[in-house]
Amino acid sequence: MAKKAAKKTAKKATSKAAARPAKKNAQKTGKKTVKKAASKASKKTANKAAKKTASKTVKKAAKPAAKKPAAKPAAPKGATGSARVGSVRELAGGPDLIADIFANRTPAGELTVAAAGLKVGVSGWAFRYRDQGGCVFVDMRDRTGLIQLVFDQSTIPGQFAIAEKIRSEYVLAVSGVVRKRTPENINPRLKSGEIEILVKDFEVLNAAETPPFEVDEHSEVNEELRLKYRYMDMRREGLANALWMRSKLNQSIRRYLEDAEFLEVETPVLNKSTPEGARDFLVPARMTPGTFYALPQSPQLFKQILMVGGLERYFQIVKCFRDEDLRADRQPEFTQLDMEISFTTEDQIVELIEQMWARVIQECFGVEIQLPLPQLTYADAMERYGVDAPDVRFEMELRDVAEYSQKSEFQVFHNVLKSGGRVKALAVPGGASLSRKDIDDLTDWASRNFGAKGLAFIKHEAEGLKSAITKFFSPELLKEMADYLGTKPGDMIFFGAGPEPIVNATLGNLRVRLAKRFDMIPENQWAFTWVRDFPLFERDHKTGEIYSVHHPFTAPHEDQLDIVMDPERFKKEATKVLSRAYDLVLNGSEIGGGSIRIHKPDVQHAVFKALGISDEEVVEKFGFFVNALKYGAPPHGGIAFGLDRVMMLFLQRESIRDVIAFPKTQKGHCLMSESPSAVSPVQLQELAIKTVPVPGS
After folding, report:
1. How many CB atoms are closer than 10 A to CB 193?
2. Strand, coil or helix: what is 325?
3. pTM score of the predicted model
């Protein structure tokens, strides 16, 4: 504990202390050492001890800490004899120019007017260049920012011809003197806009061909081109900043979880194929022909086994893989923060997670989160918002209108209610401005994506509610319904009628679509919501088959466990059983989900049986896991967060591709490396694999 405390104290002191204050601290420390040593040894010996202590303290405190994205890297070994002004290191003046610049390099974005008069070394890429006859100006860029370089013919007569040939993305190493710009040449948009470097010596480290697109952030570039030349896109501020922030997020998470005594454990990437909801990516095993590994969709079974192993608190920032159709917030490989805890409850996990994200988000994005976060039950979320990941930044909730439907003469609604379906309404402020074509397009969209058979609507006009279906409602009933829904002239009411899942999905997604269209969603607002008490099982409304809402390792509520364990009761009451699951939603996107797990073998077998998984399949797919449960598995639970999605939301990007270093396209292709790709017949032969043509391909 003493060592840990000492390390923290040293780290804190290091990040704040510059060389000069450190020296004072060292002298103070030295005096104390002298006093202590004098009682045992001579004054001369004590002074030597003091000087030694002081020297060590100065050396330790003078090293700059790297806490921010634009970090000031510690000086490499051998970089001695240089002076500092903040993060600026003055060149030592050694005989080897490049070695001197690399050893004492100053970040371009950290140079300010305080460094005027110092001789410094910088290196990076030529961003813009201007030849003004006898003087070449180059805006040089490194990962911290820009600095203007001045190549003056009178200062570097022997090298000026080389300077004139510098073009975009040439890699440069430069030594020169920092000087103030004249008032009329100050660039207020840059941190270094008050200064420039008068070049005294330089070297072109590498020339560059004409870039495939302008690296300037403001130039519009086709996404396919940016993905093909991803290394060029990384030089642009948008992607570079996203990767900085990802690193900062990961480091912040790790610091918090280390303080909370979690262990970081790596789980296998090559594993057994187990049904977890999506298709697995398969990897042929050469040493056992005809068999395959699967890339993990998540470390679910392994993290539970870690709890059986007694590790109690586990986390991992891990790659996961799912072979599924892609969209803006999905990739075939993605990164998640994976966590599991023993001897805990869902309330304790919720509290820990809230504390973690509040600290991490404040550190990384400067956003303060008010705790505790609001919570909804799954039933409430579906009833009011139609989806289990509701965007609560705006009102416009779904309302049940069965009462008004029954009082009407509209047989379509009557028939739906008789068959056990639902009739719900969505009142849209300002929605009456939608044209007939707009409504037809929305109807086609609802039918195509959610299986809706239609999208009835009523406009609230100055005279009241009007549409083709209002003739089936009395004027009094229409007024009552308008009052109930809170509509006014200029608003629109859309109706969903049919099986509850279709009605909720249709109106829930329509709610978000129209909120975006009518600018109802406030910007720069972060609305977190926990959704809890999910059903353990749902029934497919087409086939009638039971399936797990999350996964088959989720524990049921204790007071409903007897339904799961009784096959006869389960047939009748399966969908009544609630799970001990919880999702965290941010601005209408699920960023994380987890549950308390099943830790007793008999309960796990009962759930497998309820899902129609035979004993043979259990042994084949989950044998190693169910065996582990037999040997004293503790109560445990966990959660996993999609870090790509968190980054996308907080950086307000349209796609997670914009926050991933090397993403795939919507068809799963890497345009830069041109993968996936065919392999040689020899490789296939080694794997005992024969390819066959796919019909229609």
Report:
1. 17
2. coil
3. 0.84
